[in-house]
Amino acid sequence: LLSHFKISTRTEFTNFKCKSLDKEFADFEYCTLKAVNRSYKYVSTKVKLFQVPITKVKVNFGLYKRFSGYRPFLYNITVDACNFLKNPKSNPITSYFYDFIKDISNMNHTCPFDHDLILDKLSTEHINHRVTDILSFPEGDYMMEMHWIAYDITRAVVKLYVSIS
């Protein structure tokens, strides 16, 4: 009897925020959370780069879970993006999170970056598959916060809010 029941998890985007801290270096052309219907949502963003080529990039990403405010949960890592992109298998945790975006962005090559950066339609379906089938996360509200650092100066902060139920 129990073999006929399947536990299903549902992932939903609740917010998406992008902030440029140095508008002379880079700025967001758009940063959108779009609901196509009740069950299909996606996020997209485009970053205009004004000082190309960019040859030195780090990303600090932290995962937070909401417990009376957002508190650190599992990961807070800073990665040299240029080195990571040369060898993605060098860091399994970063690779797990990079796999969310590598097929739907143009940030899928090694440095230098000499073009605008685009993330196109990261869907809840894609997130749901990764946070349930590949590495399960407990139910709750989460925030992924990313600090994009070029030449050792934080240039932008991106926050993606997700609810898993």
Automatic annotation (TrEMBL):
| The name this protein goes by in its record | Uncharacterized protein
**Gene behind this chain?**
LOC108011502
- UniProt-listed InterPro entries: DUF1091
A UniProt-annotated Pfam family = DUF1091
Species name:
Drosophila suzukii
Tell me the SMART domains matching this sequence. Answer: DM8
